[in-house]
Amino acid sequence: MATPAVELQNVTKKFGEFVAVDNVNLHIKDGEFFSLLGPSGCGKTTNLRMIAGFEQPTIGEIFIKGQPVAGIPAYRRPVNTVFQSYALFPHMTVAQNVAFGLEMKGVPRPEINRRVLEALELVQLPHLSERRPKQLSGGQQQRIALARALVNRPQVLLLDEPLGALDLKLRKAMQLELKQIQVEVGITFIYVTHDQEEALTMSDRIAVMNEGLVQQVGEPRRIYEHPANRFVADFIGETNFVSGRVKTVAALAEVEIPGATVLASSEGHSLSPGQEVTLAIRPEKINVYPTGKVDLMKKEAGIDAEAAMSLFGGQIPTGEVDVREYLAMEKNSVVISGRVREAIYIGTDTRYRINLNNSETSLVVRVQNFGSRYDTMFNVDDEVYIHWAAENAQVLLD
Amino acid sequence: MSAAAATQPQTIPFPRQMFGHNLRRTFNKHVLTWLAVGVFLFLYLPIIVLIIYSFNANRVVGVWTGFTTDWYVRLFNNPLLASAFRVSIWVAFWSTIISTILGTLAALVLERYRFWGKLTYDAILYLPVIIPDIVMALSSLLFFVMFNVALSRYTVLIIHVAFNIAFVAIVVRARLADMDDRLEEAAADLGANEWITFRRVTLPLLMPGIVSGALMAFTLSLDDFVITFFVSGPGSTTLPVRVYSMIKFGITPEINAISTLMLLGSTLLVVISLLLQRR
Fold it and tell me: In this structure, which of A306, A386, B33, B165 has its CB flanked by the most CB atoms within 10 Å?
């Protein structure tokens, strides 16, 4: 296995009695875009500051490119940081700011000038080299801060919520640009953020942190689809939590929930029958259908004719079909009857709250508004079927 | 509208509310304006009178006979005043240099480091700002007498450094507190050790505060009378002390002239200092 760019071994950091980082182990691969994600005060920034050398771990060891860095001061570490406040030197021009790191390394003047220009071109601001930081907009300052760090060609670039101060639109544009720059320069990025969407958009892998502990490490898709625990499921995106009891154990376990027994993914956990668990289902994974009989050929209630086609082997039954029977034909699917409690139109989607099988338990469901099917929207008190694929429901231990 | 609804006292009648509000505003406006004018007159009228009479041709203060600049000419030809001026400048210059360095270091230590007894040190450092000059003067004199130190321009210098440190430290510390800590971390992150970080980032950013503190120290040193009067020995008479001894022989327009010059010099330094602090 290749040497990891950065490795944290059993790292704990205490500030007095307060444990900011609690026995963290991380392997960050070379060339990876790695995000530390969590709410404020979860220890993500402390982790970053320990890698940068601004803080020393209380216990444990940090390796950069396989070398232990304990006792090596910040100014001798092969890493550079982009600060949340940018921390551009206000008394220097943009060019002097970017040149600072190279001057410290004793790079000859002609090479400094060339590399400064290169770095400013990378962030598309070569025309601002003689300006002072105060004369730049927030977005421009952010790019200069990035150029000032990247010009040193660090082994690892540390970014501490660098987009936090920008407005939403600029932030979205910068997310894509940052990712593109990372691919271009091929440097390992360690990115601290509390914005789950940002982390999902840019990262190769994410470590979700809470209260100093690493909750889960994995690719964005894995973290979103198969959260390891309730915190991760709740922090990233929106999730329905339903408490239940394990009935049978398998890759797809049978779980009793109020009003139904359903199949759900038990990935990452070993379960035993009778165990109390929580089921997590994303609102967008759930579909809503009308009760009764529909004519598939008429595309009533949004039953997808193409999906129906594959389900029935190219032969769509003519005439009326019972919706429940139709939905149950799909392998490992969950169908439960319910009653609409709440229906809110929010533009791209409609948000329903639906009670399960006359029980008090309800699920939030998001249905994307294809076309302008305003007439097919369900109303409060409508009887419906809700349906999801079994592997989209994740069993969580509490 | 029905009659019943019209007679119901729903809100405070509109005109009364307006009247009350206006009355208060008018009162505030006039009283405050005249109060301000009164205070400014009280503070500056004596000074304006002093400046006017420095150009009076008549030797008797209070009797205006005509305009002259004679008193200023005589001032520059007075050897005693000239030597006092030289002593004042010497003391102000060196006490500024020494107290600016020490005051800046004190500010850095207090703002950046945690150490045992910090709070006590902090409080003691600012004592010269709070305690009356006469207390500082007496205690300084007693100190020198106790240790058998002959009073000279050096004793004056030592005491000026002592009280100036506090003022420099206050101004520099305010500047330091405003500075983003991340700037120094950024310098370290880019490969600068503590000394280079201080020289290339911290010091340039503190400079307006340091210069402004130095100007303040220079002004305070030039203007000080009470403390200097107690600790100055033969040959170390500063300008304010010399002026005081001149007054003993009667107030002449010469005194008015030198006071005007000192006033102008001090005002200039303080204005520059304030402008720098704003930056």
Answer: B165
Structure tokens at A33: 């875009």
Residues A307, A343 within the same domain: yes
Cβ–Cβ contact B201 with A under 8 A: yes
State the Cα angle at A147 between A145 and A149, rounded to 5°.
70
**Cα atoms in the Cβ-side hemisphere of radius 13 Å centred on B47:** 11
Closest CA of chain B from A76, distance in Å: 6
How many Cβ contacts (< 8 angstroms) between chains A and B? 57
ipTM of the predicted structure? 0.80
pLDDT in tens, A243-258: 999 998 888 888 988 8
Give chain A positions within 8 Å (CB) of B186. Answer: 81, 83, 87-89
Strands A188-193 and A33-37: parallel
Residue A53 backbone class (left: φ over 0; alpha: ψ -120 to 50; beta: rest) = left
DSSP at A78: S
CB A162 within 8 A of CB A141: no
Q: At A308, which CATH number?
A: 2.40.50.100
Residues A264 and A187 both lie in one domain: no
Fold of the domain built from segment(s) B70-278: MetI-like fold (1.10.3720)
Q: A16 — contact with chain B (CB < 8 Å)?
A: no
Q: What does pTM read for this prediction?
A: 0.78
Segment A342-392, tens digit of pLDDT: 999 888 888 999 998 878 889 999 988 775 554 567 888 888 889 898 889
